[in-house]
Automatic annotation (TrEMBL):
Homotetramer, a dimer of dimers. One homotetramer interacts with 1 SecA dimer. Belongs to the SecB family. GO terms for cellular component: cytoplasm. The keyword tRNA-binding does not apply. It comes from Candidatus Paracaedimonas acanthamoebae. Pfam families: SecB (PF02556). It is found in: Cytoplasm. This is Protein-export protein SecB. PANTHER family: PROTEIN-EXPORT PROTEIN SECB, PTHR36918. One of the proteins required for the normal export of preproteins out of the cell cytoplasm. It is a molecular chaperone that binds to a subset of precursor proteins, maintaining them in a translocation-competent state. It also specifically binds to its receptor SecA. Its main location: cytoplasm. GO terms for biological process: protein folding; protein tetramerization; protein transport. Residues 1-21 are annotated as: Disordered. GO terms for molecular function: unfolded protein binding.
Length: 172
């Protein structure tokens, strides 16, 4: 072959063939399903809330909780609990609660020490955009501007929650 010629990848039925050395690792998890598990929207005094012409935005308090439970071998249900509470001048405007869940199958060759971080970081990261959309639609349909949550760093949440426990265990 001449020096200025380039070798083109082989094609099988019009699709480039992968080189045998291109070992692509298997995905550590598969999303089997995702769904709204529970949803609630409370608008305790809609006439007051919707008639206020105050230009100040309400204070939004967001609480996040993540729970994982085994369904069968290597299969887990992970639930992302989001609670958004909006108040203005100590007056509750709305309370939105959402439990958005997914069923995940983890790779059977996954090291045991990797299971908990994947369930508490990666699975919620995959669920969050959908939960965010549901919560946004819920608040909009409740008569308020759509609540657009900022992205959440689940790795940082995990470090804050479980990193301090690991440090306490190591210190004893």
């Amino acid at each position: 072959m001449a020096q200025n010629e380039t070798q083109k990848p082989k094609k099988i039925n019009g699709t480039p063939e992968m080189e045998p050395s291109a070992n692509i690792p298997a995905m550590p998890l598969i999303v089997n399903a995702q769904y709204v598990k529970d949803i609630s929207f409370e608008n305790p005094s809609p006439l007051e809330s919707l008639s206020e012409n105050d230009e100040h935005a309400p204070e939004i308090e967001l609480n996040i909780d993540i729970q994982a439970q085994p369904v069968s071998e290597h299969v887990y249900e992970v639930t992302l609990h989001l609670t958004a509470k909006a108040q203005k001048n100590n007056h509750l405007m709305f309370l939105a609660e959402l439990q958005y869940a997914g069923v995940f199958t983890l790779a059977s060759n996954l090291p045991q020490e990797a299971v908990h971080p994947i369930l508490m970081i990666e699975c919620p990261r995959l669920l969050f955009p959908y939960a965010r959309s549901v919560l946004s639609t819920l608040t909009r349909e409740g008569g308020f501007p759509a609540l657009m949550l900022s992205p959440i760093d689940f790795l940082e949440l995990y470090r804050n929650q479980y990193g301090s426990q690991e440090n306490a265990t190591q210190d004893s």
